[in-house]
Fold Protein kinase G tetratricopeptide repeat containing domain-containing protein.
Amino acid sequence: MRVRLLAEEGAAETPIALNELDRELPGDWRVTWYRGVLALATGQADEAVSLFDACLSMLPGETAPKLALAFALECAGKPAASWYDVVWRTDRSYVSAAFGLARSGRMSVLDEVPATSVYRVAAQVALAASVVRRPDVAALRPSDLVAAAERVAGQTALDPRRRDLLTAEVLGGALTWLETSPPPKDLRLADAPFTEQGLRRRLESLFRRLAVAAESRQERHALIDRANAVRPRTWL
């Protein structure tokens, strides 16, 4: 446990502690594992790849070394999706593998995170956010934005403030989309008409609601400024 904590912190004395442990437990896979942890903690991703690969050779039937190797490969800027895929197909309790696949571009895999998982909400939030955080928002379909808003609204376990912020992000993405496309007919987004006026009114109301519950004066003023900036133009 001591070596584990030292390795996770990347402490300077970790190599000495690891060598002592290696002498006490020769051939123990945990020594190699914690050397890999230390390599990751100190930014030596290539070294971590070699160490976790060695761990996998020592424990060929175990899932954890495969996941560790995948993460080390990702940190080293090398292809890791195949290892994440092996882990995810083997055991759906390793949700980190699903997020690893999502980072490699397979966002849809997050929908496979079991409803019983504590990471289900995080997976759904990541899916919704990915829609409007992509660089080519203009290439989206209106239905993509509506689905993202509905996904956020459906997360009853999500903190209300976080839900409002995410909904505001989706609405902001929809406004960006409207800059290059005409409003879709008879479509609503987050309880608002999918028009510039409708989305701006909804965004304004969200920012003002968030401002009421702001934790600081600076945050409240910033949210009010955002509400004023997005407010639809009127004659009044």
In short: The two ends are 67 Å apart (CA to CA). DSSP finds twelve helices and two strands in the chain. The chain has two domains: 1-111, 118-236.
